[in-house]
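**Archive record**
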Amino acid sequence: MIPDLLWVMAAAEEASGGPDIGKLRGTFVQYGMVGVFALLMVLGVVVPKWAMTALTAEKDNWRTAFEKERAAHQVTREQLARAEERGDVATEQRRR
């Protein structure tokens, strides 16, 4: 199928003489790499350095915020545990 496509495209390119398949293949090889690279960028497989730097910085900001929130909740959990212990002690003292 692809060789037929190359043949038709070459024939359309040079209608006066015989098709130059070698020239057409050379064009595909030359510009095909650029097309593959552009496709990989569109799909997100290849990412520019500036975009990767921005994503890494954003990841670090989210991680810092998560760690701060986790530390704040840890203090709250510790306070609740102490309050529960005090409540248990008060309940035991009331029972005696």
Summary: Helices lie at 2-13, 21-43, 49-95. The CA atoms of residues 10 and 19 lie 5 Å apart. The chain has a mean pLDDT of 80. The chain is about 85% helix and 0% strand.
